[in-house]
Amino acid sequence: MNVLVINSGSSSLKYQLYDMTDESVQAKGKVERIGMESSILSHEVTDRPEVREVSEILDHTTAVKKVLDMLTHKRFGVLRSIEEIQAVGHRVVHGGESFGESVLITPDVKQEIRRLFDLAPLHNPAHMIGIQAVEANLPDVPQAAVFDTAFHQTMPPSSYMYAIPMVLYRKHKIRKYGFHGTSVQYVSRNAAEFLKRPLEELKLIVCHIGNGASCTAVLYGKSFDTSMGMTPLEGLMMGTRSGDLDPAVVPYTINKEELTLNEVNSMLNKHSGLLAISGISSDMREVIQAMEEGNEQARLAFEMYAYRIRKYIGSYAAAMDGLDAVVFTAGVGENSDALRRKVCEGLTFLGVDLDEEKNRIRSGEPRSITKDGSRTAVLVVPTNEELLIARDTYRLIRQGSSA
Ligand code: AMP
């Protein structure tokens, strides 16, 4: 069975086509600058050079049509006809309290995703456009929605409630939801497999450290607490997001700088974090390079970034009353031995004994970076959100057809 995975943004659409008989990626690519004059479609078939096509793609329905044309193209395609696509899985950022797991898309599900627009105004509307664009092109193909928030729906109220008037939760569902759930779920399963222990017995802290960054306490296979909140702004310091700060900073800054709420919101989401402190970049590679060249601001940014991860690890170890493994994943977590070393420096009290040599090794496979006999393991486990979306979609389709 072929499953097409779609991640639809407001002006972009990424795709991967999986053959679920062996979970291999047949083709992948993205359409960028949708709605603009020169839209770009980049398409890659495994082991062949990338194809790039510049044209005017005015909307998502046309973008999906272009993708389907490419997948069935005589020279660059991998399918004889679009009938060979049996299901489509969509990444959907916010599932609110309505979705604790992935679901097949029905009219009711679409209505619920629409109802959640307020909670994820930048993401959910774009996902809905993607869902409708697929419907327009492949009206008879079943679609599934896989939510970034779903995995965290197991958090207890003591983890997800904010200590503000209850009426705000009751009326507006203001609470912590958490994100990166698809990644955390995928990585936790692989970590347990690597450790050769049942996930249901493990206390893990998954550090998804990419451009967006979060830590999640995974207690016996379920999310117990996570650092991102009602939106992805809370928690760790990130590429351009501030992470945790005293909420009183917001009114104070508005007064002092005569800013609007929108301007402060944009400052905290787009002009803070690594970018603001280093004054150089939101890209960890560039920050580390500048630090190695002696830039003091870059050093401060790097140290703050690592320190905050370490603080979350400490607090989640306390929250779970123990810890079997810290798991690093995503762009920075998988690739930066310097960041991992800095975080682990302060974790000796938890029994982390980092192996410098193992930490430096690069590989696309799950691996341990602690010494044999380290009381707490530290693992690096590559994430693959698209594969989990494909797997969930495939499972739902099979369940649906056998029901
Ligand atoms: P992601 O959001 O998971 O795609 O991660 C993107 C982030 O990973 C960017 O900030 C990159 O700078 C970072 N990254 C990728 N490779 C490295 C590396 N070798 N060292 C440090 N950061 C890296």
Walk me through the structure:
With 403 residues, this protein is α/β, with parallel strands linked by helices. The protein has 15 helices and 14 strands. The protein has two domains: 146 residues, ATPase, nucleotide binding domain (Nucleotidyltransferase, domain 5, 2-Layer Sandwich), CATH 3.30.420; 189 residues, 2-Layer Sandwich (Nucleotidyltransferase, domain 5). The radius of gyration is 22 Å and the shape is globular. Adenosine monophosphate binds next to helix 10 and helix 12. The site of adenosine monophosphate (AMP) has 12 residues, from helix 10 and helix 12.
Explain briefly what this protein structure is.
The chain has 403 residues and is an alpha/beta fold.
Looking at CATH, the homologous superfamily of the largest domain is: ATPase, nucleotide binding domain
CATH architecture verdict of the largest domain? 2-Layer Sandwich
User: From N to C, what is the helix and strand string?
Assistant: EEEEEHEEHHEHHHEEEHHHHHEHHHEEH
What's the CATH topology name of the largest domain?
Answer: Nucleotidyltransferase, domain 5
Assembly context of the chains: single chain
The number of distinct helices, counting runs of at least 4 residues, comes to 15
